[in-house]
Amino acid sequence: MTTPTPSPGWHPDPEGTPQLRWWDGTQWTSATRPRALQEGPKTPPPPVDPVIRRRNNFIAVGLIGIVVLGLGAWQILNTQGGGNAPAASSPSATPRTTAPTTSAALPTSPADSTTDEVMRAFWLRVDREGYLTINVNGTYTDQELESAFLEVRRIYTSTKKTGGWHVFVDCGNGQQAVGGARQANGKFALDSLGAARTGLAVGQYEFKPLPDRKACPPDLPTIADGTVTAHDVIDAFVAAGLPATNRQDRTITAGCDDLKCAQMIAVDEVSVYLFSNVAQAAHYAEAFGADKVYQNGLLAIRYKRDGKHPIDEALIPQYNAALDAVGSVR
Questions:
Q1: Separation between Cα atoms, residue 90 and residue 270, nearest integer Å
Q2: DSSP of 186-207
């Protein structure tokens, strides 16, 4: 028994899908539609001419290209300020606060550069490869100290560009002043070698102000008008024909802020200390002993028995006599 051939039209899909498939009278076509739309035999949708399909595709692609080009041109005009649309507002800047201790901060844009509001005078000295000293003379805040450090880092980042640098910030009046009270420590790394030298990552820095740093300049006793100074005593040695080689003011480096002396002038043969009161001078002489120190009033001589030009033991009485002659007060 043969199955009658169905008439052309929509019929249940012989493949079992929940759709209707078009039978053209001789074979099943690829045209389908949902069962709910079944309304009996209808003419199938006419096939699309391949030429027309290609033409429509070209038109669609062309329209898309025009839209893309138009959007790109609009964005360029707005970016360059040539458009009429309002510019997008930028997020408001947040003020940067500088903590007393900056630990391994990543390099930033010009925010690291110093400003006139916090920049104060300083002197920079290269002690040796990898070690720098910044001298400051005055009471600097943590931010002012960091500003000087960041300025040095900025200079080295833009000029030297290599190495790692340990930076000591000391109290000192001038580039060559040494021995002043430490104010802060810092370091920065500019390349891989510098990173190995400092223990930082490339481009990072560390800055630490000392929280209990000594006053800068030191809080030294004042010298009353008319007081014979340590310089006056050295002048008296020279006038007496005594050796006084390589005169240097070591008031800061000798630790007068701890010794409570007002001044200390050194030559290779002796050091001369000036105190603000006799009791302090006597205490200093007693602490070191009569074989090392001779004291008269506010002044004390300490003999040097080492170095390039140690004192001639035979001349010690003459140094003492010169001090006695000049007196402690004019």
A1: 68
A2: EEEE-SHHHHHHHTS-TT-EEE
Residue range of the domain that includes 286? 230-326
In 3D, which of 122, 254, 247, 262 has the Cα closest to residue 178?
254
What is the C-alpha to C-alpha distance for residues 197 and 225, in angstroms, rounded to an integer?
Answer: 51
- pLDDT of the residue at 87: 41
> Helix and strand tally (H, E) in the chain?
7, 14
One-letter amino acid for residue 223 of the chain: I
Q: Of 180, 209, 238, which marks where a domain is finished?
A: 209
Answer yes or no: do 192 and 237 share one domain.
Answer: no
Burial of 21 (0-12, 13-18, 19+ CB in 10 A): middle
264 shares a domain with 196: no
Window from 4-13, 187-196, 207-216 with minimum mean pLDDT: 4-13
Q: Is the pLDDT of residue 303 over 60?
A: yes
- Longest CA–CA separation in the chain, Å: 153
* Residue 329, pLDDT score: 45
Burial class for 247, CB neighbours closer than 10 Å (0-12, 13-18, 19+): middle
Q: Which helix (H) or strand (E) holds 271?
A: strand 270-275
- Token pair for residue 258? 């701890």
Tell me, what amino acid is at 181? A
Distance of CA 232 to CAs 115, 134, 273, 275, Å? 44, 32, 11, 14
**50-77 tens-digit pLDDT:** 555 555 555 555 555 555 555 555 554 4
Q: Is the pLDDT of residue 223 over 70?
A: yes
For the segment 10-18, the average pLDDT, to the nearest whole number, is 78
Q: Are 300 and 272 in contact (CB under 8 A)?
A: yes
Each residue of 121-165: pLDDT tens digit? Answer: 999 999 999 999 999 999 999 999 999 999 999 999 999 999 999
At 179, which CATH number? Answer: 3.10.310
Q: How many structural domains are present in the chain?
A: 2
Domain boundary among 209, 244, 273: 209
